[in-house]
Each structure stands twice: as C-alpha cells, then as structure tokens.
Design goal:
- This is DUF4371 domain-containing protein.
- The chain crosses the membrane at residues 322-341.
- The protein is built from 15 helices and 5 strands.
- By secondary structure, the chain is α/β, with parallel strands linked by helices.
- The protein folds into 2 domains: 3-136, Nucleotidyltransferase, domain 5 (2-Layer Sandwich), CATH 3.30.420; 146-327, no CATH class.
- A 5-stranded mixed sheet has the order 3-2-1-4-5.
- α5 (138-146) packs antiparallel against α14 and α7 (171-183) packs across α9.
Length: 342
C-alpha cells in the first residue's frame, strides 16, 4: 500500500500519455481505413494567445452502419489563416489517416477562408477534383438568424439594468435588491445574470420589483427607470422573452450526438413553418405568454411581425443548401454520411 502512494515520475507520466495518444491515433486510423465513408468538420477560431487553431473532427460510417465520431487533430496556424493555409493543414492531417478518398462531405463554421470556392478550403479541395457537399453548421446558422430580430436596443437596456444591480463590485446593491424582493413577497428570490438559464424571462417576471428598486435605491438610474415604464419597451421585452423561449426549444432540439442531417433539417423546417403561425397569431397574442400580460394595446403588437418576418427570411436563406439537397431527394441519401458539428 505504501508503494502505491509513491507518485510516478515525470518521464513515466509522459510515456503513459504518449502510449495513450498513439493507441487512440491507431484506433482512428483503423476505423477510417475500414469505413465506407467519412465526413470532416472544420472549425477555425483564435485562442487566448491570439493563435489561429483549426479543429478537425471526423464522422465515419462503418460497414455495419454504426457511426464513429472523434476529434481528429488540432492544427495551429501560427502565421496566417488563409484558405491555402487551412487546406495545407487539413491535407497534412488527413494524409496521416488515408487522405480524402472516402470523404463524403465537409461541414464548416461558415468562415470565408473555408467556404470560399476560389481561394478558400473548398476551392482548393475542388482543384484536387474532390467535389463533395459543403454545409454550414446548422446550430451556428440558427444562432446567427436569431440576431436578425431587431431588438438589440431592448436587450442592451436589460443588460444595463442587470449590471446596475448585479454587475461588478455591487454586492451591497445586490443584497439590498434581495431584501426588497423578500419584502415584496416576489415570486422569485433573485435576478439572474445573462449567462444563466432563463435570465430574460426572470427579468420580465420581476420587472415591477426592479423598477421600484431603481427608483428607491439606485442613483443615476433615471433612464432605465423611464424604460421600465415605457409601454413600447415593455411590449418589445415581452415579445423578446417569448420568442427567445421558442428559439431555445429549437436550439435544444438541434443539440446532441448522433443526429443526422435529415433530423436537424426537419427541426429547422418545422420551426420555419411555425413562424407563419406565430406571425398570424400576433393579433390574438396566442403563443405569447409574456406579451399577453398587461397588454392593453394589442394592435401595436402587429408591428412585431416584422421581426418574425426577418427571422423567417434569414432561416430560409441560410438553409438554402439543405433545401437544394431536399429538392433533389439527396438529403435522405446523404443523411447517413453528413454530420453537423455541435
């Protein structure tokens, strides 16, 4: 027992890690060598040291139709991150695992250095006579489309008010706010930060308590107080709260492992059709729980239909590559081979 407590030397730990790495690498090589098809996912981003990192994931289909997913390699791009640099890095990584012969598709994060058909990774791939479907990550597209809702001013105001209460070195202000919530018998005991789940709906639920607190306890908060008493701001906040909840449901549906492109396109297409229903239901405030609360001017809610229209158009244009596959009945053919990185 005393011998087991002796720590391993640095050299031993290094050798163990190298053995584990080599074993994993050999297993991946065997799987790719014996698989029928595989797809790769490229994600290029900048780390904390301002170095471009290219992440290469692989999704392989074995002969028995079981799937395999693994991070293939992380390539550091120390100079530039142009299309040719990404292609050389990806090519060098793939040559260790048999090359692009069995490649069936490429999924990207939408960066022009990857998706460019001339000077991007895709363009250099086609120059090598490798023509495969290239898709943009569906979850990434959904996040970008959500930003098409033109209510950034409302969101900025909510963030400002939240920071007045909980941001920075405001522990005393925060404690006073908790005391006020307790005195007013509020349904909730605290205001959530933006990084936490359901923070926007929590803000809307205790909006009256927040307005009271800003008026009585916080100095230099006249503008946020006026916003919380403005009918148009409250209506936009209610709409933003409701539509965000619907978008969160879609986002959760898209997350998870072993989902085919057919399933994920179905979720997006279904949500896109729901937007027609949401837009037509604005006059009755149906499907909008927060918007129905204290809304005495329902006609003004119709103007919010513009945001839904923009969201629908954005979703429709961003998934045009999937729509083309569907039109040629190819989305079902590739549903086994295409993989969307989460």
């Amino acid at each position: 027992k005393q011998f087991q407590t002796v720590p391993l030397s640095k050299q031993t730990v290094t050798r163990r890690l190298e053995d584990i790495s080599n074993q994993i690498s050999n297993n991946v090589k065997d799987i790719i060598a014996n698989c029928s098809y595989f797809s790769i996912i490229l994600d290029e981003s900048i780390d904390v040291s301002n170095t471009n990192q290219l992440l290469i994931f692989v999704h392989a289909i074995k002969e028995d139709f079981t799937t395999f997913e693994e991070l293939l390699q992380v390539c550091s791009l120390h100079s530039t991150a142009r299309g040719v640099d990404i292609f050389k890095a990806a090519k060098g990584a793939m040559e260790e695992f048999g090359g692009f012969e069995k490649l069936s598709s490429v999924v990207t994060n939408g960066a022009i250095s990857i998706t460019g058909t001339i000077n991007g990774f895709v363009g250099f791939l086609r120059q090598k006579q490798i023509t495969v479907p290239t898709l943009h990550c569906i979850i990434h597209q959904e996040t970008l489309c959500a930003k098409s809702i033109k209510l950034s001013t409302t969101m900025a105001t909510v963030t400002t008010i939240t920071n007045l209460i909980r941001g920075g070195n405001r522990s005393l202000t925060h404690r006073k706010f908790l005391t006020l919530l307790e005195e007013m018998d509020s349904a909730y005991g605290d205001l959530l930060l933006r990084t936490e789940v359901r923070w926007l709906s929590r803000f809307f639920e205790i909006r009256h308590e927040i307005a009271t607190f800003l008026r009585e306890k916080v100095t230099n908060s006249a503008e946020p107080q006026n916003d919380l008493e403005d009918v148009e701001f409250l209506r936009n906040l209610a709409f933003l709260t409701d539509i965000t909840q619907h978008l969160n449901v879609l986002n959760l549906q898209l997350q998870g492992k072993k989902q085919t492109i057919c399933q994920m396109f179905g979720f997006v297409d279904s949500f896109r059709k729901k937007l027609y229903l949401f837009k037509s239901a604005l006059d009755k405030i149906t499907f909008y729980i927060s918007l129905a609360v204290g809304n005495s001017q329902k006609k003004k809610a119709w103007s919010l239909g513009t945001s839904l229209k923009l969201l629908k158009i954005c979703l429709q244009s961003s998934t045009v590559d999937l729509t083309i596959l569907k039109a040629f009945n190819l989305i079902f053919l590739y549903s086994v081979f295409l993989y969307i990185v989460i």
